[in-house]
Amino acid sequence: MNKYTFIFLLFIPTLVFSQTQGKKYLAGNGGEIFLPQGDISFADEIVDFKRGDPDAVTEACDSMLSIGVADFAGVASNFTSLGCGGTLTVRFTDNALINIPGPDLYVFEVGKYIETTQLYVSQDGKKWINVGAISGGVSSVDIGDSVKQGEVFHYAKLEDLKTDCKGSWPGADIDAIAAIGSGVQFTLSSAVLFDFDKFDLLSNSKLELDRIVEQIKKQKPSKIIIEGHTDNIGQESYNQTLSEKRAGSVKEYILSKTSTTKIKSKSIGYGSSLPVSSNETKEGQDKNRRVSVILIP
Questions:
Q1: Is 102 left (phi over 0), alpha (psi -120 to 50) or beta?
Q2: What are the CA-CA distances from residue 175 to residues 28, 141, 184, 225, 275 (Å)?
Q3: φ and ψ at 176, to 5 degrees?
Q4: Measured distance CA(261)–CA(167) in Å, rounded
Q5: Mean pLDDT across the chain, nearest whole number?
Q6: Is the pLDDT of residue 131 over 60?
Q7: Among 32, 105, 151, 291, which lies 20 to 30 A Cα-Cα from 123?
């Protein structure tokens, strides 16, 4: 790993949690859906979009219309049509999809009928778990039959199964994708926390971690997961060990400040296996060197 000027990646806790009040949202096919974590429940980033054939009309081909807060209001340009057999892959960045009892994910598909899609979830965007088909007019999904309780996922993928390929908007029409089982995620640049090639916390970093600790005390999560990540420079075995030690340092500090709350915790090192940006650029490498703290409600 090389030492670079860092990009500040801290999601400020007070801003994040100001949006975590439970909230109801209009479903595109009628009715409402309640999301316990509010606006941060929604997928934030497009990873991949492969248009189907036949494709939709131009104004419904923008994949960016399927991320962020559900906002369909009867306007054709406010959703993404997958096209016949198209696929849409999204990532959760300020939250994470978690397997909880009951429904875990809600797909805001617009229109009177729910066109069948196949749902996949992934931790790293590479290895996918087939959750099953979304059909029968039901847009809420329980991933519990396919994954372990409490598992955390950062990616979701929808594949249109070609049940309706007619008209101007063939295939499924997606307004938004939201995690019902949603954990709040804080991401900090490793440069904020550690010296180059070290895993001992910097003195100034503790001020930033204290802000997360305060939110932990307020929110009282059932579990905390700390993930360590590196770029791909150097030997992977070394990066793996460094990511584990850095995650462990953050965990140790958080536990020292929350010992009276008896919250379950787990630290994991992923080395360079879960990049959030390209390692081909300095900027991407900066983003990939990070530690994430996920609060599971």
A1: left
A2: 7, 16, 22, 30, 27
A3: -165, 165
A4: 56
A5: 85
A6: yes
A7: 32
Section 140-144 average pLDDT: 87
Domains and CATH numbers, the chain: 38-180 (2.60.120.260), 184-296 (3.30.1330.60)
Position 10 scores a pLDDT of: 39
CA distances to 19, 76, 246 from 198, rounded to whole Å, are 34, 52, 8
* CA 147 to centroid of chain Cα atoms: 16
Count other Cβ atoms within 10 Å, centred on residue 106: 24
Q: What is the pLDDT of residues 235-277, one digit of tens each?
A: 999 999 999 999 999 999 999 998 766 788 999 999 998 888 8
Give dist(CA 51, CA 43) in Å, integer. Answer: 19
Give the predicted TM-score (pTM) of the model: 0.80
5-9, 154-158, 186-190, range with the lowest pLDDT: 5-9
Backbone angles phi, psi at 48, to 5 degrees: -160, 145
Q: Convert the pLDDT of each residue in 4-17 to its tens digit.
A: 323 334 333 333 33
Query: Alpha carbon of 9 to those of 190, 192, 194, 199, 290: distances in Å?
Result: 9, 9, 14, 18, 8
**pLDDT at residue 19, rounded to an integer:** 39
Residues 6 or more apart whose CB falls under 8 angstroms from that of 127 comprise none
DSSP state of 202: P
Helices marked H in the chain: 13-17, 190-193, 205-219, 236-257, 282-288
- The secondary structure of residue 248, as a DSSP letter, is H
Q: Residues 160, 87: contact at Cβ < 8 Å? A: yes
